[in-house]
Amino acid sequence: MIGIKSYGAYLPKYLLPRELIGKAWDFPVVPGTKAVAMADEDSITMSVEAGLDCLMGIDPKTIDGLYFASTTQVYTEKDSASLLATILDMREDIITADFTDSLKAGTSAVARAVDTIKANKDIRNILVIAADTRVPEPSTMWEYGFADGAAALLISEDDNLALSIDDYYSVAANVTGPWKRADKDKFIRTFEAKMDARFYLENITKTMSEILKRNNLKPEDIGAAAYYYNNPRMHGRVAKMMKFSQGVAQNSVFFQVGDLGTPMPFILLISALRRPKPDAKIIMAGFGDGADAILMQVRDRNALRDLGKTRMGVVGHQKSMATLKDYSKFIDFKEVLEKDRYKRKSSAVTLWRDAASVYKWYGVKCKNCGTIQYPDFLRSCYVCRADDQLEPVKLELKGTIFTFTLDHLVGGNYFATPVPRCVIDLDGGGRVLLNMTEIDKPEEKVHIGMRVELTFRKEHEGAEFLNYYWKCRPERGRP
């Protein structure tokens, strides 16, 4: 049986009330809030968070493949999936692939993961991660919708799975919008919103109707439908056209966190799995130049409930989110306004040589006295001074602040300062120096003894290359 063994999600800390957008541009106000990534976040960093959540309690070395889905991939001639696999500390002999340029990339990646597992007896577990950080053009309706987030599904072959994947059906359609040219457009373009809505309704209903027909099912047989939408009215029209029973179509995401793009069907599915009904049939559908519909069935209700207790998922992240009070913070996060930003240098040799410590988060442990230290460029233990007695050890992603300072001049500028630079005693051993992110009023809130958790973020850009590293943040509830 092939299905979903685990899931994970990530939502950024901050929510932007749509009321602030309306006030900024004197627009009619749309209700609700949307999730907003910080300036040091992108589709890579959010995918790491979702992957960590999904693999909680699972050895990453048991994963045989990683598929990454996004319309906002950081690089176009560099495999993001391989980078994610490195950061998540997976084996080298795995398959990786990027699925890009369509909002249905996430559901397409899930279908391809099922195909891959069926075709290769040596592949049993593929992690599919979807993430998007689309930048909306200011003073447009896109600004009300586009939001940031990530989600992950572990597709596995096993006799005991919480959720089976029973079938999928896809259609391809060369629609006229929306689009964004890779070399010329910074923002999404479209011809006519009404035509976009028509193509959406045709494709999303066609795929879900066909999956029902292929499996001799009726609309009343479906317990939950998690399909992509960017307009609550269109979502309701789809539910009526499909004749789903009341409460079947999952519609809680847009008003709470916005249009998340590629990961939205995953997020809707995870939300639906909080209170699963025994043996319920579930449809997940993605849209973008066609559509995918994936039919699933609850196989182990208790296992799904256990996943909900051990993952932050959607609800856990929502509980730890904070509301922005100023629209200008959103503009700054998205770097919409051009500024002279300090640019640092980058070293390809360092990135290659120190991948284990910088990306995978390994330190070393002394075989003689047991001391854990970081980084790992020394031959000798700094406690007992024993030579060549150091072995790699995986470091924890939580700790306590030993001491800190507040830096008011970062990269030659005073943008978003002060930045707390924290010396952290990691749980399980090891002391590290990290910058803090996701902190308001650090002068008041940062203190010695403060509990923190680590998060993978953008550090700086140098030589036209993005450099990533770990930062710390106040605990958000990660298990």
Order of the strands making up the biggest sheet? 5-4-6-7-1-8-11-10-9
**Would you identify the CATH architecture of the largest domain?**
3-Layer(aba) Sandwich
Q: What fraction of residues sit in β-strands?
A: 25-35%
Structural class: alpha+beta
**What proportion of the residues is helical, as a percent range?**
25-40%
Characterize the overall form: globular
Annotation field: number of helices: 15
CATH class of the largest domain: Alpha Beta
Q: Which parts are unreliable, with pLDDT below 50 for 5 consecutive residues or more?
A: none
Overall pLDDT confidence: 93
Explain what this protein looks like in three dimensions.
- The protein is of the alpha+beta class.
- It has 15 helices and 20 strands.
- The mean pLDDT is 93.
- The strands form 4 sheets. Strands 5-4-6-7-1-8-11-10-9 form a 9-stranded mixed beta sheet, sandwiched between helices.
- It has helices at residues 18-25, 43-54, 80-87, 105-119, 142-145, 193-214, 232-242, 253-257, 264-272, 301-310, 313-319, 327-334, 348-353, 355-358, 442-445; strands at 2-10, 14-17, 33-36, 65-70, 95-100, 125-133, 148-157, 163-172, 222-227, 281-287, 290-298, 322-323, 362-366, 372-373, 390-394, 398-407, 419-426, 431-435, 451-462, 465-474.
- 28% of the residues lie in helices and 29% in strands.
- Helix 6 packs parallel to helix 7.
- It has 2 domains: 2-334, 3-Layer(aba) Sandwich (Peroxisomal Thiolase, Chain A, domain 1); 348-474, OB fold (Dihydrolipoamide Acetyltransferase, E2P), CATH 2.40.50.840.
- The relative contact order is 0.14.
